[in-house]
Give the backbone structure.
Amino acid sequence: VVAKKLLESFWQEGLLMIKNVKNLVRSCLDFFIIGYGFLVYKIKGKTPQWAYFALIRMFCFSSGYSNDFLSFLIGLVRRPYHLGSTDGLIGKNRSVQDGAALSNLRKNGYCVLPALVNPEVCDKLLKIANSEICHAYIDGEKVLSVKFNPKNPIAVKYQVPSSTLINKEVVQEIISDASIIDLVQKYLGSAPVLDTVNMWWTTAINKDPDSHAAQLFHFDMDKIKWLKLFIYVTDVSEKTGPHTFVSGSHKSGSMPKQLLSKGYARHEDKEILEFYKQSQLKEFCGPKGTVILEDTRGFHKGTPVKEGQRLMFELELSNSLFGGEHPRPELKKIINKKFALALKRYPRLYSNFF
Ligand SMILES: O=C(O)CCC(=O)C(=O)O
Ligand SMILES: [Fe+2]
């Protein structure tokens, strides 16, 4: 019996070793695949899907360090912009505020800014979300192009198309805001590129978390390094679907292997709580105008809305567009003066829209 047990344990150890060696060989290969994919991306302006998949595999295998290494290289080439004045939406004379925001971002992976966005900006965003045609998603499928009707919601998520958003004055004002660009580039350690502009309603038609509406814990892995800026356009309480982040989970080497081995997956709360303390789950409630900056490489989710609805505006700024490919919204009208100037000065920042 002892001999049989010994043999079994040798067999298990052997299998584990073979698996580890296989993973190591695959990772070395992935490194070359990413390098070659980056060359293709430079020539064609699009990331091949196989290179993007290799980026995700490497992230999971190296527990995030591969992305840090690539970010370091990008930071050497893409130095931050010289912005001049950095006053703007998220405050004036912000050196102290920025210091706190940056250290919170680095340590915890998120920060909630002390100042709210001007109510006028929220009102303009709200007007767009109420009057423009949205994409209503049911089970993740785009089902209908409809206006949002709070009295009779038919989907968990109504998304205002990015192509609508970027052609609006208020959105152009936000995306050319020097205070945002400044803080983001300090965190990224390189000049940012505006990757996505989103705004969506989340409704209360579902009781259980909707995976397609990002209501289960997950990490984003679209690009190499990025920061998301969320603006609550409506008041958010525990009942109206607070965004939730697992504090500290953005750090390399910190994500549990068991979760990473599932790859780019969604996780139930109880799975997350096997590895993280309840006190690390930060649920952000706040009035309209609340700004949250978050490194969504860490685990996060939107809580299901219990009553009413939540309107969220979101920007993603990354250090490179290398990564997941999405349809690029087309910039048709340049309405805002500040945006026109920023576009001339920092063409790469807006290169996703051409
Ligand atoms: O709706 C939410 O709060 C979650 C959104 C999310 O996961 C994302 O934008 O990456
Ligand atoms: Fe997400």
Q: What stands out?
A: Residues 214 and 304 are 9 Å apart (CA to CA).
